[in-house]
Amino acid sequence: MTDLFSPITLGGVTLPNRVVLSPMCQYSAVEGVANDWHVIHLGRYAASGLGLIITEATHVSREGRITPGCLGLYTDAQEAALKGIVASLKRHGKSPVGTQLAHAGRKGSAEEPWRGGKALAGAEAWQTLSASALPHDTGWHVPKAMDEADIARVTREFADSAKRADRAGFDLVELHGAHGYLLHQFASPHSNKRTDKYGGSFENRMRFPLQVFDAVRAVWPKAKALGMRITGSDWTPGEGLTPEDAVALAKILKDRGCDFVDVTGGGVSMQQKIALGPGYQVPFAAEVKKRTGIPTMAVGMITDPHQAQAIVAEGRADMVALARAMLYDPLWTWHAADALGASVFTPNPYLRGRAPTAPIPREVAPQQVKGVAAR
Ligand SMILES: Cc1cc2nc3c(=O)[nH]c(=O)nc-3n(C[C@H](O)[C@H](O)[C@H](O)COP(=O)(O)O)c2cc1C
């Protein structure tokens, strides 16, 4: 039986436990540059003893952003800001820190959700790119179907951002291959109607995402970790990506040196019907893990410590990623450790806030926890 609070090694990076902060856009950057909001937001998680922090979707070009408030990693100023934040997270926490590199494709040039989340209008809008010249929905921008020069350029942009991520001190890169963004737009038959070598068969639709993976693998250190967020299902019966496709893609990724996959779903088609419920996407992760053996992360309405423990202990996934539950309770990891009787990192200034019954973290000297131990 594998415990939620046991370590796992991805590539050359060891996570102290299997609880992962799922990437969450904050739409709060200016010209793609992280600021004090990102320090506040991510700092809460560094203090909570997570196994891995994955920062929000961080875009490889200006046109690749979802909204004007999205983070980027394509300028020196963006790299410098993230470098400072990563250094702080690692100085004060024990969680490895990863970034999610992304390109929004046809879902870009959008308003921040709290402005309405619709396509931008007027001078704020920009030309989007995709596999085919098909808008995401009515009222959305018609993207340019990428030609071979666009494909080569965007591939280079992913590799360049990965180099910046390395210099900024990130331990891990997750490529965003899901949720209807650019790599998924090539992978899914809903959005890819191309007739060249990048469209049609499974092999052709996966060509661009795999080309991006290879380009990043070539520049991303083996001593760190590289993975991809992939689609377990487009949630569109009859057409679209299925768990079988996720298994096939994960096998190829594993052979090409991918250290983990993070299995999610949906986001590419307005016809989707998602069967929401606790752990609703865990079966996709379980199928991928069982059939490929690649280290696998499950995500989607994992909220309860015992639920998370069961997913890992029963071998349905190697790690669990939580998003909304982490916004609600940034100290979820502490609460889970207490519920499961496990030990978790606690920064010294927070020691007296731990539950009286919580086990004392092993890495803390006994004299430092007098207040906790005495109760
Ligand atoms: C505020 C917010 C922002 C998100 N941004 C991203 C993102 O940047 N990249 C991504 O892959 N998923 C993003 N997601 C999806 C989550 O990572 C996660 O897959 C999804 O919310 C399901 O997990 P949950 O039920 O634990 O929230 C976001 C979710 C939320 C709530």
Strand order of the largest sheet: 3-4-6-9-10-11-12-13
Tertiary shape: globular
CATH architecture: Alpha-Beta Barrel
List segments where confidence is low: pLDDT < 50 over at least 5 consecutive residues: 365-375
| CATH fold field value | TIM Barrel
| CATH-assigned homologous superfamily | Aldolase class I
- Provide the CATH top-level class: Alpha Beta
Number of domains: 1
The proportion of residues forming helix, as a percent range, comes to 25-40%
**What is the gyration radius calculated from CA atoms?**
20 Å
| Cα-to-Cα separation, first versus last residue | 32 Å
Describe the structure.
This protein has 375 residues and is an alpha/beta fold. It has a single domain (8-344), classed as Aldolase class I (TIM Barrel). It is built from twelve helices and 13 strands. It has helices at 36-46, 76-92, 148-167, 182-187, 202-205, 207-219, 243-255, 282-292, 305-313, 324-328, 332-340, 370-374; strands at 8-10, 13-15, 19-21, 52-59, 71-72, 97-102, 129-130, 144-145, 172-176, 225-233, 260-265, 296-299, 319-322. The chain has an eight-stranded parallel beta barrel, surrounded by seven helices. A two-stranded antiparallel ribbon has the order 1-2. β1 and β2 (13-15) form a beta hairpin. α1 runs parallel beside α2 (76-92). It starts with 7 loop residues before the first strand and ends with a helix. The model is unreliable at 365-375 (pLDDT under 50). The structure holds flavin mononucleotide. Residues 22-25, 56-57, 100, 176, 179, 229, 264, 299-302, 322-325 line the site of flavin mononucleotide.
